[in-house]
TrEMBL record:
Cofactor(s) annotated in UniProt: Mg(2+)
Entry keywords, A to Z: ATP-binding, Lyase, NAD, NADP, Nucleotide-binding, Phosphoprotein
Keyword RNA-binding: no
Domain YjeF C-terminal: 60-369
Protein name: ATP-dependent (S)-NAD(P)H-hydrate dehydratase
Source organism of the structure: Spirodela intermedia (Intermediate duckweed)
Binding site for ATP: 266-270, 285-294
Amino acid sequence: MCPLHTFSSVARSHNFAASAVSRRHQFLIRSLGGVRGSASSRRMAAGVTNLSSLGLEADAGSILKRITPPLDSGLHKGQAGKIAVIGGCREYTGAPYFAAISALKIGADLSHVFCTKDAAPVIKSYSPELIVHPVLEESYSIREDEKASVSSLVVAEVKKWMERFDCLVVGPGLGRDAFLMDCISEIMRHARQSNIPIVVDGDGLFLVTNNLGLIAGYSLAVLTPNVNEYKRLVEKVLGRNADDQDAAEQLLSLSRSVGGATILRKGNADLISDGETVSVVSAFGSPRRCGGQGDILSGSVAVFSSWARQQISEHSERLNFSSSNPMVLGCIAGSALLRKAASLAFAENKRATLTTDIIESLGASLEEICPAK
Ligand SMILES: NC(=O)C1=CN([C@@H]2O[C@H](COP(=O)(O)OP(=O)(O)OC[C@H]3O[C@@H](n4cnc5c(N)ncnc54)[C@H](OP(=O)(O)O)[C@@H]3O)[C@@H](O)[C@H]2O)[C@@H](O)CC1
Ligand SMILES: Nc1ncnc2c1ncn2[C@@H]1O[C@H](COP(=O)(O)OP(=O)(O)OP(=O)(O)O)[C@@H](O)[C@H]1O
Ligand SMILES: [Mg+2]
C-alpha cells in the first residue's frame, strides 16, 4: 500500500486537502458561474442545498491510492491490465495513440489499437509499444456488394481478441463513416454480451448518441463527453439544452435515463454520475486546451476502472468508498491524474504545453501519489 504521508504532500500541493465543504462551495461557484447577489448566484444557492446532499468533490487522492495495485514480482504479463482502443482512421491517428500509450504509461501491461488499414502504419510508427491491428474498413475502400462480407470479417477479427481485454475504449479518432459505425455497433454488442467494460469517447459518442440501445442499461459502460458531445447527448436523451445551473442534477438524470451507464462530463470541473451518485473532480489542471487531453483521459479511465473492478472483487470489505461502482472510481482516478499531469506539464512548458508533454508527466504524477516502492 502507498504510504499516507505521500498522499498528504501531494494533497497540499494539488488542492486535494481542501475541506470537502470548501471544495464543494468553490466548485459550485465555478460551475454555476455565480456573481455575488446576482440572479444566477441565487439560483446557485438553491442548487447548493440540493447538490451537497449528493456528495460532490471526490476524495480522488485516496481513491487513486487504493485502486492502484502494488507492483508485485509474483504477477505475470497482463495481470496489470490489457486494454484495447478501437479508433484511428485516415484523418485521425493521434487520438488512438494518445489513449493507448496513456494506458501503458499508467501501468497497463498491454495496449492494443484496432484501426483502419490506412491509419495502422502511422500509429505503429509512433510507438513500438502498441499492438496495432489494421482491421477496420471505411466505405471509400470497399464496393457496395462487398459490404456484408467485409463487415463480417471486420467484426470477426475484433471478436477473436475480445475476451482477452479488461476494457475497450471505443471512439478516439474513429471518424464517422456509416459503414464503420455499423461494424463498431456490432463489436459493442458483442463486448456487452461478454461483460467487457467499454469507455465511449469521441466519435464513439456520436454513434452511441444516435443508437442509445448500445449502452442503455449497461453498467460497465462509461461515456466521456466533451462540451459538444454532452450537448448532443442531453438534447437527444432529455430533449433539453445542456444546463450549467443545475449541472449535477441534470447529469444524474441523464445517467438514470440511460439506465445507469456512467457519464463523465468534461469541463472546467469534471462531473461524474452513474445515476446513483454525483462526484466532482475540480483540482486545477492546466489552462492549455490543446487537443488530445480527452484521449489521455479515456485511456486512463479504462485502466483505472479495470483496477477498481479487480480491487472490489478481491477486497470489497476494506474498500470504503463513496461509490462502489468501479466505473465511477475509474473516472475519478483518471480525471484527477490527468489534471495533475497537465499541471506538471504546464509548469514546465507553459504555452508550449502539448498532449505529449502531459503524457510524459503521467508517470511522475502517479508516482507522487502512489510510489512504486
Ligand atoms: N490528434 C488527433 O488525432 C486528435 C483527434 N481527435 C478526434 O477528433 C474527432 C472529433 O473530435 P472533436 O473533439 O474535435 O469533436 P467535437 O468537439 O465534437 O467537434 C468539433 C467540431 O467538429 C465537428 N466534427 C467533428 N468530427 C466530425 C466529423 N467526422 N464529420 C463532421 N464534423 C465533425 C463537430 O461538428 P458536430 O459534431 O457538431 O456535427 C464540431 O463542430 C474524434 O475522433 C476525436 O477523438 C481529438 O481527440 C483531438 C486530437
Ligand atoms: N475549461 C477547462 N478548464 C480546466 N480543465 C478543463 C477544461 N475543459 C476541459 N478540461 C480538462 O481537460 C480534459 C479533457 O477535456 P476536453 O473537454 O478537452 O476533452 P476533449 O474535447 O474530448 O479532448 P480531445 O481533444 O482529446 O478530444 C478534461 O478531463 C478536463 O479535466
Ligand atoms: Mg475528445
